[in-house]
Amino acid sequence: MTGTLKKIYSAGIYARLSVDSGERKDESIETQTEIAKAFIEQQEDITVYDCYTDIGRTGTNFAREGFERMMCDVRTRKIDCIVVKDLSRFGRNHIETGNYIEKIFPFMGVRFIAVTDNFDSMNLSGRDETLSVNLKNLVNEMYAKDIAIKVKSGKLAKWEQGSYTGGIPPYGYRAEWIDDKKCLFVEETTSDIVKKIYELFLSGKSMREITRWLYENRVAGPEMYHETGQVYCQETEQLKEWSRCTLKMILKNPIYMGCLVQGRNCGRDYKLRSRHDMDSGDWSVREHTHEAIVSDAQFFDAAARFEESVKYCNETGFSKTVPLMDDIFAGILYCGDCGAKMKRFSAVKCFHSGKVRFYSYNCRNINRIDTLQCVRKSISLRRLTDMIKEAIRQEFSLSAMRPKKLIESNVREAENLKKEWNRQAADIERRIKEIIKCGSGQYLQYRMGEISEEHFKKEKEENDRMKVSLRKEKDVITERLRTIDAQTVKKNHFLRALVKGSKKSELTAEVVRTLIDRIEIYQDHRVKIIFSFKRSGI
Q1: C-alpha torsion sign, points 322, 323, 329, 330
Q2: How far apart are CA 383 and CA 376, in angstroms?
Q3: Cα 196 off chain centre by
Q4: What is the Cα–Cα distance from 192 to 197, expressed in whole angstroms?
Q5: Where are the beta strands (DSSP E) in 46-88?
Q6: Sequence-separated (6 or more) residues with CB below 8 Å from residue 346
Q7: Beta strands 516-521 and 333-335: pairing type?
Q8: For residue 195, what are the contacts with CB-CB under 8 A and spacing of at least 6?
Q9: Rounded CA separation 377/217 (Å)
Q10: Which of 12, 10, 142, 34 is closest to 88 using CA atoms?
Q11: Which pLDDT tens digit goes with each residue over 253-293?
């Protein structure tokens, strides 16, 4: 008599905890994991492979480190069962959550279990149970939207009170809670450094000279200060020089004259948490909210000096008559000795035929005064371009790689890219329709007297802002779709011309990023190129 072997599932336990203040204490990562483990111990057909966690991550977005690691193990067949405490821990976007449970997991042969919701995808009885899951997912999404609205309203109220809502306070200040209000107070030690920076800058010192003064006096930078609590670096400790960006931030931040400017960037809505800049008209600006470190006159004098510097560059730098060309090696050109990104420099020279701009690349660390100082090296754009062209030609001739295959790959990549952009455009259009539908419902509520006119106007303004933002995104996508085919034609034309030996073939940013992952420049004029394809072919 033969028996049937029972399938044993390899399970991944997933637990998530967001930063929402409304979540209960029993939602901790440990509690979720223990509930899932206790459930698995009672099952004869499930074993635990690993636990995957995300802390401080919203459930409305599936771009989470722990979740992506779990899905990687799903794709490599290491796990074929996912166990969560409840559906809300898996996600709060009812469309995406339903898509995973009803389409993706069944297609990949993955069993999904939500313990406290009594849901097991292997034991679905029919339509009613699926409907119940969809309703729970919808409720979870409504909860996330409600939390987002409350958080936003809470921040607006605190901004009105002049409360500081940022994280680490700016260099020169400390933050303290006074009667449910986060206030900034001057730190005597670091505020003296801020005053000195303004004093040096207004006396005519350059950024380079200020950096050298800070280094010679062993003043720790803001990042190091927040880590150690020490204003000055000890002789036995390694000191890093202040960055130009940090100095500009201090000299341009109105917080140092007692003015609190908040809300300069935020998430677009509860479904899309990526940050974006806000229009200056929507910023929260409150004057005299805390003690100033520099006077209004000092701050505006510093701003005037920056403005004069920009004006001088525009008038004398040929920026209008000889505009800068795009940097085709941006993001992939590195110093081979210290690993820093190479910085592009340009200079304009006058000839009888007119003005011509020349370009070269230098290591950005050659002028540092600390231990990160690098050896001097430089390469011209023309020489680098010729070397890259020759290296690509040789790589094709030495390998099994054929331009025809790469051309076909470029066409496939373009088609896949167009599909993705079209998908995003359709998603944006769907969201715009949702906003319009939501606005119609709000208007009906207003006409029936369920909400006030003031509340309706605020909601309408918010809806209008979101629609404008989404339409701008769609315009960007439309423009990208329009240029994809043209860029593909350019890339393929370059490859054909290069193989034929034509010296007129133009190297573009699109070609560089298609063929090359990284370029390293060394002191001995050696150039290392790491191609994005292998010699055995694509």
Answers
A1: positive
A2: 17
A3: 34
A4: 9
A5: 46-55, 81-84
A6: 324, 357, 358, 359, 360
A7: parallel
A8: 293, 294
A9: 29
A10: 142
A11: 888 888 777 655 554 444 444 444 444 444 556 677 788 88
pTM score over 0.85: no
Q: Token pair for residue 471?
A: 């339409």
Two structure tokens written together for 10: 């390899």
Lowest mean pLDDT among 143-152, 158-167, 471-480: 143-152
Which residue, 173, 181, 192, 199, is CA-closest to 291? 173
Greatest Cα pair distance, the chain, in angstroms, is 99
What is the spatial distance between Cα 92 and Cα 58, in angstroms, rounded to a whole number?
Answer: 8
User: Which of 217-226, 361-370, 501-510 comes out lowest in average pLDDT?
Assistant: 501-510
d(CA 313, CA 317): 5
3-state secondary structure of 362: strand
> What angle do helix axes 244-252 and 207-216 make, rounded to 10 degrees?
110
Provide the sign of the torsion angle of the four alpha carbons 518, 522, 524, 525, taken in this order.
positive
**Residue type for position 435:** I
Burial 249-274 (b: 16+ CB within 10 A, else e): ebbebbbbbbbbebeeeebbbbbeee
Q: Which residues pair with 516 in a beta bridge?
A: 531
Q: What residues does 534 pair with on adjacent strands?
A: 537
Which tokens in the block code for residue 517?
């992952």
CA 468 centroid distance within chain: 22
As a whole number of angstroms, the distance between CA 164 and CA 156 comes to 11
